[in-house]
Write a structure and sequence with these properties.
With 340 residues, this protein is mainly beta. The chain has 3 domains: 134 residues, no CATH class; 76 residues, Immunoglobulin-like; 88 residues, Immunoglobulin-like, CATH 2.60.40. The chain has 1 helix and 25 strands. The strands form 5 sheets. Strands 1, 2, 3, 4, 5, 6, 7, 8, 9, 10 and 11 form an 11-stranded mixed β-sheet that branches. The chain is flat.
């Protein structure tokens, strides 16, 4: 056999063996996300990524150093706390889907009066099952980097690129009915909406979702902000009148998302029965900013957005605010932080 053919065959066998080892050992493929930052006629490419051989500090074999910022002009670098401080490429430890958040710091220096655009390709991020990626600037709400590919800033900017692990939703059921989606384990990005529905068989009725007594409706939407395990509980219709439903006489007011926020956040609440419902926003001095809801609403789950404005449409300043939910004669209050 000629030497060239033998070497080709050997290389093919080695590649197959390497792929087999990756599969059986569960090794995670490294990933890289180049980001192009443009201003006027100049641009830089700065790269973040993950690798199982990396650390959260400086890695000489993976990270790439860039010079310190010049005294003037447009410049971009990735910042880390320890020497060498200024990076072109910042690779972090990544094995499977990390359970902890990871933060990269992107610093942009722009001459006064100019703007810069940050562009990336969402397809370069790890798979959807491995969590959410967001980019945030103090004057912009967080941008989901899987859904968008552009951010524009008009000043010197300290941008944060944040990886947040997915939240797990485990669904199951008792006999006497079915559920949608079917029983199983599902993963959602932070703040993503999960819709669940219990479907009782003939002669049965839905009782409640075991695992979270605040969810009393057979069909409901959940804003995912933690891991959850829910079991749809059914009971024969002849016995349902004596069955107790957790929180049947209550209403629930949930934590807004995002929080802190700028400038928009969503408030979620649930009514166990039809009731007069009033949702208002007040500042730390107790002054009413706006009334978002004032009506009679049937039982169910509700989501209401607040855009950080007064009733006249004028934006309110940064600070601590409270949202009051009054249902008939009862009131619940939660706090939130607007950070412009």
């Amino acid at each position: 056999m000629p030497v060239q053919k033998a070497n080709t065959k050997l290389m093919g066998q080695i590649m197959v063996l390497a792929l087999f080892l990756v599969i059986i050992t569960g090794e995670t493929a490294p990933w890289r996300l180049p980001m192009t930052i443009q201003s006027s006629n100049k641009s830089y490419v700065r790269t973040i990524g993950g690798d199982e051989n990396a650390t959260d500090g400086y890695d000489a074999e993976l990270d790439i150093i860039t010079p310190p910022p010049p005294s003037s002009g447009f410049y971009v670098y990735l910042a880390i706390a320890d020497f060498p401080n200024y990076l072109d490429t910042d690779i972090r430890y990544w094995s499977d889907a990390p359970f902890d958040s990871i933060t990269w710091s992107l610093q942009i220096i722009i001459p006064e009066g100019n703007t810069s655009s940050i562009l990336w390709h969402p397809d370069s991020l790890p798979t959807v099952n491995e969590g959410g990626f967001f980019i945030r600037h103090k004057t912009n709400p967080p941008i989901n980097m899987r859904h968008d590919s552009l951010l524009t800033v008009a000043e010197n900017a300290h941008l944060t690129v944040l990886y947040i692990p997915n939240y797990m939703l485990q669904l199951d059921k008792t006999s006497g009915g079915d559920i949608q989606p079917p029983p199983g384990t599902y993963y959602y990005q932070p703040g993503e909406v999960a819709t669940i529905k219990a479907l009782p068989d003939t002669g049965y009725e839905f009782v409640y979702w075991k695992g979270d007594s605040t969810i009393t409706q057979d069909s409901c939407t959940i804003i995912m902000h933690r891991d959850m395990s829910l079991v749809a509980t059914f009971q024969e219709a002849s016995n349902i009148k004596t069955a107790s439903r957790p929180g049947q006489d209550k209403f629930n007011l949930y934590t807004n998302y995002p929080n802190p926020f700028n400038p928009t956040t969503t408030i979620h609440y649930e009514l166990a029965q039809t009731a007069r419902t009033i949702l208002t926003i007040v500042n730390i001095r107790g002054e009413k900013m706006i009334t978002l809801v004032d009506s009679v609403q049937p039982r169910g789950c509700y989501s209401v957005e607040w855009h950080g404005t007064r009733v006249n449409g004028q934006p309110v300043p940064s600070g601590l605010y409270f949202y009051h939910l009054q249902v008939d004669e009862k009131v619940k209050v939660e706090k939130m932080l607007l950070a412009r």
